[in-house]
Amino acid sequence: MRIIITKSTTEAIDIVSGMLLDKLENKENQVLGLATGKTMEPVYKSLVEKINHGHLNIEQHSFFMLDEYIGIPEDHPSSFKSYINQHFRNPLHLHSIQFSLPSAGTFAIDDAGEEYEKKIKQAGGIDLQLLGIGSNGHIGFNEPGSSLNSRTRVVRLTEETRQANKAQFASESVPEEALSMGVASIMEARELLMLATGTSKADAIKYLFNHHDDESCPATFLKTHQRFTLVLDPEAASKISLNI
Ligand code: GLP
Question: Which of 10, 64, 159, 200 is the most exposed place for a label (fewest CB within 10 A)?
Fold first, then answer.
């Protein structure tokens, strides 16, 4: 695991968007796994600025989302499809065909998980997977209790996660289920890049540092990946001691 502790949130965001840009700029036909959440909003903003600044054409690349809610239509303003359209696809005028999401929507169709895994394989696998972390250590929507062998499947969201994501839903209630890539599916990406910012992530990051292969904090599984980079701002790193 490579750990980068930055001096500010801005620096952390700049490093992460720079790493994503590097793939899009210098490699051909990249398959990037993308994440949602508040943490990633400034990352996409920064990445869009960098792409526009460099007049880059990124139409050859493709993007796979980690997860999607079940129980709301895909064009619902709080769906992850709407999220990625708003923060990344629309500002760059990218084609919808470049983006894939687990097919959730109002209800999840049988085999949707297997179909999604098949689609990722057909694309050649994920080159770089971007990840955030839930305050309970979840990755994608792999809540505590998710196993190392888990694959793309229907998952039940914890109350903590539903509360954390409440702001996205105005007066509506947060869906109880989602379709999420599993831990095993995430671990198959050739490279993993996690960003955690803010004090609300400090406990999860501390736990991640001190535990290994622990189902109660699925992010701990990532530490065995050969190419896992963790970028932290000072607040997210505030409860760890590095002994260096
Ligand atoms: C959601 C997403 C995760 C994301 C997490 C953290 O649960 N499924 O992929 O990492 O939220 O979100 P935030 O950045 O808003 O704290």
Answer: 159
